[in-house]
Amino acid sequence: MSSPWFVRSKPKPHADLCLFCFAHAGGAASAFHPWGAKLEGVEIWAIQLPGREGRLSEPLITDFAILQQRLVDELAPRLDRPFAFFGHSMGAIVAYEAARELQQRGLPMPVRIYASGRRAPTRPNREPPLHPLPDAQFIAELKRRFAGLPAVILAEPELLALFLPILRADLTMLERHDFKQEPVLDVPIAAYGGQDDPQTSSDDLEAWRALTTGAFDLRCFPGGHFYLHEQRDSFLPHLAGELNRRPWLA
Questions:
Q1: What's the burial of 134, exposed, middle or buried (CB within 10 Å: 0-12/13-18/19+)?
Q2: DSSP H/E element including 241
Q3: pLDDT digit of tens for each residue in the chain (250 aa)?
Q4: Which fold has domain 6-124+183-249?
Q5: Fewer CB within a 10 Å sphere, N or C end of the chain?
Q6: E strands, the chain, where?
Q7: What gap in Å lies between CA 9 and CA 35, rounded to an integer?
Q8: pTM of this structure
Q9: Which residues are catalytic?
């Protein structure tokens, strides 16, 4: 049963754990392409949102509630074995809200949520929204807050024209997201971040603790906002050890 919402770069149908991966704003499933070869015993299902890569012709989503409903509709028939969520930046919020929607529908729940590079949704945004800014100011603020866009995109006007609407749509969805208080999840949460990330402090990560009645773990790694890609060769062995150790079973 195939779906454009999921990309498996290295299918492992007999793996005993599935890791659903949710990318940052502007990101796509390819961000997790190298993970399948590095995480033994785990099958990676990277979430592919509409409007990017293989779904480029589809309309972008700018409403979080619509994304949540459509995503969980696609997830529901694919939860026939133990699974975990890993979300980075915007993806952390998408993963957490997807888990809350699963809970509301009485569907199987993840064994663990990895919330990476993003303050808990109960923490207010300390800076004004990015999504309404004109392009030049939008790009300048991206550089200041998140170390900007990849140089290859900035150097190619056609690539930039393709990428900016995707990023703007994601930020529109994220910055307009209205977090509603509901019963917290009984799912272990691991909050990860980069030691030099100016957008996400250890206090921002610590705030995820209040959103679960399960176990909580906080880890900061060398690097900035995209530490997991900058330090991939050291980060992925750590994550592999976590997933193979199954800390949620302790």
A1: exposed
A2: helix 232-245
A3: 689 999 998 888 889 899 999 999 999 999 999 999 889 889 999 999 999 999 999 999 999 999 999 999 999 999 999 999 999 999 999 999 999 999 999 999 999 999 999 999 999 887 888 898 998 898 888 878 777 666 667 677 788 888 889 999 999 999 999 888 888 999 999 999 999 998 899 999 999 999 999 999 999 999 998 999 889 999 999 999 989 887 666 5
A4: Rossmann fold (3.40.50)
A5: N
A6: 6-7, 17-22, 42-47, 83-88, 113-116, 189-194, 216-221
A7: 9
A8: 0.93
A9: 89
> Any alpha helices (H) in 23-156, and if so which ranges?
35-38, 64-75, 90-105, 135-146, 151-154
d(CA 136, CA 127): 18
| CA angle at 40 for the pair 36 and 43, rounded to the nearest 5° | 50
Q: Distance between CA 233 and CA 108 in Å, rounded?
A: 32
Name the nearest CA neighbour of 19 among 239, 250, 245, 213: 239
Query: Counting runs of H as helices and runs of E as strands, what totals does the chain give?
Result: 9, 7
In Å, what is the CA distance from 122 to each residue of 43, 62, 210, 247?
31, 21, 9, 26
Secondary structure of 71-92 as H, E, C letters = HHHHHHHHCCCCEEEEEECHHH
- Tokens 């997201």 sit on residue: 177
